[in-house]
């Protein structure tokens, strides 16, 4: 167990007799060490804040949008129920029924209502053949992918297992050193026990999360670092070696935090946070925009619901129904206008020599 002192962690109190290569090397390692601790602290805070923003935005969207999503679901179910009633209660010719089912299917394929597959209308033999083929194809792909992933995993494990063991060992050594000092059972008076208990909670949390930086911060904060004799070559060499190992672990920890933050930003929730920030800079509430979009979609679905309901109640002819609701024609014209506008803008950008 290294000797401890009440002096500031890792500080060198003794005045060196002469600057040596060890002194210079140790100074550089100390600077790198402090820089890494600061970078990790900033990145840890950035990740924590971003995750909190994702959680907060998701909660706000859930509370504000849930009523509208519920209305959309009710409309969707109502349209399906109307078509079911049409098929079961209306006396229709085979061709007419086929045409109506085509309208029903087109609404599903267009994403206006949820898909509902009628298994009775499918060819069971064809389904079975397709399922068998798909299962064999999936099995072959999964087997090949599994073998490839297994080889990659095995290689990564061989490459990284030694590093991970060294990191775990260093983290555990730091944890044990701090636990030896701050374990509540090591003191007798109640006030110090309470103080040590709170510190041990931080130590245990950092250890469970594999957070070496936090363990070292605790060590430095409470000034319980190892004493270094600045005139001892053995002490200086040991300290340099310890810092080299710690700095490598800290670099890995920093890289992991950057990767976690990058992955969080690339999730759908992370993209929403980014869009929300951009919109806020222009004074726009992105959630309000989303609710307006949902509202416009609800208006379309409501009009289609009313259209199907009118047909079910025989308020229109079969020919009028097969022509489709007017809202769909308007949407198609709008889509075509957008496509033409895009084509024209692309043509305007073409330079003819």
| Element-by-element helix/strand order | HHHHHHHHHH
Major sheet summary line: none
As an assembly, this protein is single chain
**Whole-number mean pLDDT:** 79
Percent of residues in helices: over 70%
Q: Tell me how many strands there are.
A: 0
Distance between the termini: 81 Å
Domain module count: 1
Task: Explain what this protein looks like in three dimensions.
It contains ten helices and no strands. With 353 residues, the chain is mostly helical. The longest helix is centred in the N-terminal third of the chain and has 69 residues, at 21-89. The protein is elongated, with a radius of gyration of 34 Å. The termini are far apart. The model is unreliable at 1-18 and 346-353 (pLDDT under 50).
Helices and strands in order:
Layout: H1 21-89, H2 94-109, H3 124-182, H4 190-208, H5 212-221, H6 233-265, H7 268-281, H8 286-312, H9 318-323, H10 326-348
Entry summary:
The protein is mostly helical and about 350 residues long. It has helices spanning about 20-90, 95-110, 125-180, 190-210, 210-220, 235-265, 270-280, 285-310, 320-325, 325-350.
């Amino acid at each position: 167990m290294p000797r401890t002192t009440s002096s500031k962690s890792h500080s060198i109190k003794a005045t060196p007799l002469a600057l040596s290569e060890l002194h210079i090397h140790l100074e550089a390692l100390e600077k790198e060490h402090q820089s890494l601790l600061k970078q990790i602290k900033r990145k840890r805070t950035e990740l924590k804040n971003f995750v909190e923003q994702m959680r907060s935005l998701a909660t706000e969207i859930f509370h504000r949008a849930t009523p509208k999503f519920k209305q959309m679901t009710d409309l969707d179910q109502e349209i399906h129920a109307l078509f079911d009633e049409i098929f079961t209660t209306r006396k229709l010719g085979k061709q007419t029924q086929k045409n109506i089912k085509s309208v029903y299917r087109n609404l599903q394929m267009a994403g206006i209502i949820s898909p509902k597959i009628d298994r009775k209308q499918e060819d069971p033999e064809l389904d079975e053949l397709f399922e068998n083929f798909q299962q064999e194809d999936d099995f072959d792909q999964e087997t090949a992918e599994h073998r490839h992933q297994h080889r990659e995993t095995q290689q990564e494990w061989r490459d990284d297992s030694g590093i991970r063991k060294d990191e775990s060992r260093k983290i555990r050594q730091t944890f044990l050193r701090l636990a030896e000092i701050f374990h509540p059972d090591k003191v007798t008076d109640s006030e110090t026990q309470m103080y040590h208990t709170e510190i041990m909670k931080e130590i245990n949390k950092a250890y469970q999360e594999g957070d070496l930086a936090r363990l070292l911060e605790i060590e430095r904060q409470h000034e319980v670092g190892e004493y270094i004799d600045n005139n001892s070559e053995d002490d200086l060499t040991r300290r340099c070696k310890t810092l080299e190992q710690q700095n490598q672990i800290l670099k890995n920890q920093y890289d992991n935090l950057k990767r976690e933050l990058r992955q969080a930003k690339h999730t759908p929730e992370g993209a929403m946070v980014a869009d929300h920030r951009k919109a806020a800079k222009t004074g726009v509430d992105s959630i309000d925009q989303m609710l307006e979009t949902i509202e416009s979609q609800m208006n379309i679905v409501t009009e289609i619901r009313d259209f199907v309901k009118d047909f079910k109640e025989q308020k229109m002819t079969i020919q009028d129904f097969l022509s489709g609701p007017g809202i769909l024609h308007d949407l198609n014209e709008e889509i075509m206008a957008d496509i033409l506008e895009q084509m024209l803008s692309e043509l305007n950008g073409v330079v003819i020599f």
